[in-house]
Amino acid sequence: VTAPPPAPVRVALGQLVERFGGLCGGDLQREVVGFATLQAAGSDQLGFVNAARYRDDVRSSLAAAVLVTRADADRLADVSSRLWICDDPYLQFARIAQWFEAQAHARVPCGTHATAVVDDSAQVDSSTTIGAHVAIGAFTRLAPDTVIGAGARIGRGVHIGVGTVIHAGVTVYDDCEIGARCVVHAGAVIGADGFGFAKDGERWQKIPQTGRVVIGDDVEIGANTTIDRGTLDDTRIGNGVKLDNQIQVAHNVQIGEHTIMAAFVGIAGSATIGKRCMIGGAARIMGHVTIADDTVVSTQTFISRSITKAGHYTGYYPMAEHASFEKNAAVLRRLEGLRERVRRLEAESPTTPEPERPA
Amino acid sequence: VTAPPPAPVRVALGQLVERFGGLCGGDLQREVVGFATLQAAGSDQLGFVNAARYRDDVRSSLAAAVLVTRADADRLADVSSRLWICDDPYLQFARIAQWFEAQAHARVPCGTHATAVVDDSAQVDSSTTIGAHVAIGAFTRLAPDTVIGAGARIGRGVHIGVGTVIHAGVTVYDDCEIGARCVVHAGAVIGADGFGFAKDGERWQKIPQTGRVVIGDDVEIGANTTIDRGTLDDTRIGNGVKLDNQIQVAHNVQIGEHTIMAAFVGIAGSATIGKRCMIGGAARIMGHVTIADDTVVSTQTFISRSITKAGHYTGYYPMAEHASFEKNAAVLRRLEGLRERVRRLEAESPTTPEPERPA
Amino acid sequence: VTAPPPAPVRVALGQLVERFGGLCGGDLQREVVGFATLQAAGSDQLGFVNAARYRDDVRSSLAAAVLVTRADADRLADVSSRLWICDDPYLQFARIAQWFEAQAHARVPCGTHATAVVDDSAQVDSSTTIGAHVAIGAFTRLAPDTVIGAGARIGRGVHIGVGTVIHAGVTVYDDCEIGARCVVHAGAVIGADGFGFAKDGERWQKIPQTGRVVIGDDVEIGANTTIDRGTLDDTRIGNGVKLDNQIQVAHNVQIGEHTIMAAFVGIAGSATIGKRCMIGGAARIMGHVTIADDTVVSTQTFISRSITKAGHYTGYYPMAEHASFEKNAAVLRRLEGLRERVRRLEAESPTTPEPERPA
Questions:
Q1: Is B250 helix (H, G, I), strand (E, B) or coil?
Q2: B chain contacts of residue A240, beta-carbon cutoff 8 Å
Q3: Distance, first Cα to last Cα, chain C
Q4: Do B185 and C207 touch (CB under 8 A)?
Q5: How many CA atoms lie less than 13 Å away from A143 in the CB half-sphere?
Q6: What is the ipTM of this complex?
Q7: Considering C159, C251, C288, C312, which one is annotated as catalytic?
Q8: Chains B and C: how many Cβ contacts under 8 Å?
Q9: How many angstroms separate the first and last alpha carbons of chain A?
C-alpha cells in the first residue's frame, strides 16, 4: 500500500529563531508549519517582507512572525510583536523554507523501477532513484543520491554528479556531464546537436557536432530549456548558474559561475557570458560576443556586440496605445530624414550649433 | 487485428442546415464529408468565407455550399446557389467541423495499456484511456473520460477533470489540478518549479516552490508550453483560457477567463492578466503587473507596466531594409540629442514654441 | 556485454587530400583523427580558418593541416607547410568531418527494443532501430534505416522516410509525413493542433485541425521545436530546410526548400516562406504574409508584412546603457511631437524645406 503524503512539519518558532538567527518579537512557543503570503498566512505560518509594497500588509496578516529588515521594523513598531528582524528577509525566507522542504521531503532512495532500462555497462550507485520508463545508456555513471524522473532518457557515456535531480522526460545526449546537486526540469534537452551547416550551392551540409555539454555543480535548468553540444569544443555552464524555462544555449557557449537567466533567453553560438551576470527574460545574445562579469541585461534586449564594461544594458521598444505607436513608428521609419531636416535648420540658424554627441 | 481508420462521415447538406441553421441555396440532398479551403474543396465538401480576401474564391470553388455573411451574399448574388448564409461563418464553420470531428473520432475508452505504471493508490475511472509507457503517481485522480497519451508523466496527488485529453509526453508535476474538457498538447510541462532564488553573496539560494498550478475547465495548452507552480500561492489559469505553443507562464501568475495567447508569450512572475484578453505572439508581460480585462496586446510587445484601461497596446521595432534600419537606428541611439537640438532651435525661434505633449 | 566505444578512426592525411581535393603542404604520411579548434588541435588533428579573426591562430596551432582559402594562404606563406588550400574551407571541413563521423558511428540496425510498443498494423523495415519505450501507432510505416530514439511517440498513419533519425522523446502526431534522411531532435513536436478558435460570445470554439504536417527530405528539426498541423490543408516544410531549436511553425505555413532558421523563430499561421531564405534567431513572421525567395531576416526582427523583393530586412531596438536607453525611449514615446516641432520650425524658416521622403 502506498504511504499517504507526510503531515506538515510543525516546529516551535523559538527553535527556528535559534537555528537561523535574528531578533523575533513573536511567541516563541508557537508551532509553525512553514510560509505563506501575508494575506493568506494563518497563525501557524510565517511571512516575509521583501519589498516596500508589501510592508503594510504586515498589519493585517495573521502570520505568527514576519521576516523584516531593521529599517522596515522601525516603520512597523506598532506591530513589533509580529516581527522577526533579520539582515536579509528574502534570503532568510529561502533558508528556512529550504529547511522545511528538507524535513517534509527527506529523500529516500527508491532504487530502479522495474520498467526502467539500464545498460549493463552503466554504473549506478545503490542510493539512486530511477523512475518508470527511464532509459540509461552504456558506460553512463550515476553518482550517489541522484534521482532520474519517469521517462527521462540518458544517453551513453553520460556522467551525473552527486545528488542531482533529473526530472521526468528530460533528454541527455551521449557523453554530456552534469555536476553535483543540480536540478534539471522536465522536458529539458541537454546535448542535442549545435546548429551548424556549411553552404553547398543552394544546399546546406551538416557540420557534425562532436563536442559535449559540460555542466558544473549547483546548476538549475528550467523546463524545456535546450543546451546544445559544442561543435569541436564543449558547451560549458559554470557552477551555480540558474537557467529558467525555455532558454536556448547554442553550441560552444560558455556561461560563467553564478550567472542567472530568465525564461526565453537565447544565446547564439560561441558567445561567452561572464560570471554573476543577470540576464532578463527573452534577452538575446549574439554569436561570438563576450559579456563582462556582473553585467545586467534587461528583458527583451538584444545584445548585438560584446560588452566589456559591466553595467546595465537595455533595448526594448516602449509599449504605447496602438494609435500612438503607429504615429511614432511612422516617424521612426524615416528618422534619418528628420535628423537631416534638423541639420538644415541648424545650418540656417544664426548661432553655431553644438556638435552632435557620439552614439 | 487493428481496425482500419474509419471512413469519412457522409451527411446530407439539408441535415446540417437543419441542425446548425442559416439559409442555404445549395442542393440539400447532396451528401457532404466536411470542410476544405475554397480552392481545394470537392463537390462533397463545404467551404467558408471569413475575410474579404477569400470572397472571390467562391466563384471558382467546387464546394457544395459556402458559409457566408448576408453582406457577402449580396456581393455573390451570381452564385447564390452555392451560398449558405449565416450570422458568423467562422463560428458556424467551427461548430460544424466539431460535429464532423465528433462523428469521425467518437472516443472509445481503451483502458490502461499494459506498459503503463499506475500507482495503486491512484483513482482511475473505468472510462479513461491510458496510453503506453504512462506513469501515474500516488493519490492521483483521473475523472471519467480522460485520455492520457503515450509516455505522459502524471505526478502524485494530481487531479484531472472529466473528458480532459493529455497528449503524449506531457509532464504534470505533483499536486497540480487540471479541470474538465481541457486539451494539453505534447511536451507541455505543468507545475515545474517557479524560478525563485535569493542572493547569498555571489551564490543563489533556491526558494522552494510549494504552491501548485490550478487550471480551470475548457482550457487548451499548446505543445511545449510551460506553466510553473506558485511559490506559496498557486498559479491559476481561468476557465476557457487558450494558450498556444511554447508559452511560458511563471509562478504565481493569474490568467482570467477566456483570455487567449499566441505562441511564445512570456508572463513573468506574479503578473495578473484579466479576462477576455488577446495577447499576440512573443509578447512579454513584466512581473507583478496587472492587465485590465479585455486588453489587446500586439505581437512582440513588451508590457512593462500595468494596464488599467482596456485598449490595444503595441510596441515593436518596425522592420526595414537593413541599410535603412542602420541609418535610422544610428539616429535613435542619440535621439535625446536630436530633441535638444530642436529645443535650441526653438529657443532661437521668433515665435513661442508649443509645449511638448506628455508621453 | 556492451561493446566499448569505438577507437577514433586514424587515416593518413594524404588519403584525405586525395578523397576531398585541394593543395596540401602538410606531411601526407601523418595519420589524423579528425578536427579540433586551432588552439586545441594536437598534431594528429586538422583545423580550418573560416573567418579572418582566426587566421593568425594558424601560426601557433599544432594541427597537422589547416584548411584555408588561397587568399588566406598568401598571408600565411611563412607557415605554408601547415596549410591545406581549398575553395571553401568551411564546406571542406563539413564534408571531411561528416566522413569521420560516418566511419566512427557506422549505423548498425539494432531492431526493436523489447520495451517498445509497435502496433501490429505498423510496417517496420527490418533495418530500423527502435529504442526503449517507443510507441508506434497503427498503420504507421517506417522506411529502411530509420532510427527512433528512446521514448519517442509516433502516432497512427505516420510515414517516416529512408534513413531518418528521430531522437529521444520526439512526438509525431497522427497522419504526419517526414521525408528521407531527416534528423528530428529530442522534444520536438510534429503535428500538434494548430491554434484556431472562433469567438462565440466571450468563449472560444475550437476549430478542429484536420490537416497534416508534411516534411520533405534532408530536413533537420531542432530540439523542442514545434510544427503544428494544418487546419484544412497541410503545413509543409520543403526539402533541405534546417530549423534550429525551439522554433514554432504554426498551421498552414509553407517553408520553401533550403531555407534555414535560427532558434526561437516564430511563424504565424498561413505564412508562406520562400526558398533559400535565412531567418535570424527570434525573428517573427506575421500570419498570412509571403516572403520572397532568398530573403534574409536579422535576429529579433518582426516581419509584419509581405516581402516581395529579396533583400536583407532588419528591425530590432538597439541596446544601450540603461540610462541612455531611458532618455532616448522617453523621446521615442513622443516622436511624432518632435516631428511636429521640426515642421513648425521649418514653416518659420526663410528657405523652403525639402519634402519628407516616404517611409
A1: coil
A2: 202-204
A3: 70
A4: no
A5: 15
A6: 0.96
A7: C251
A8: 251
A9: 70
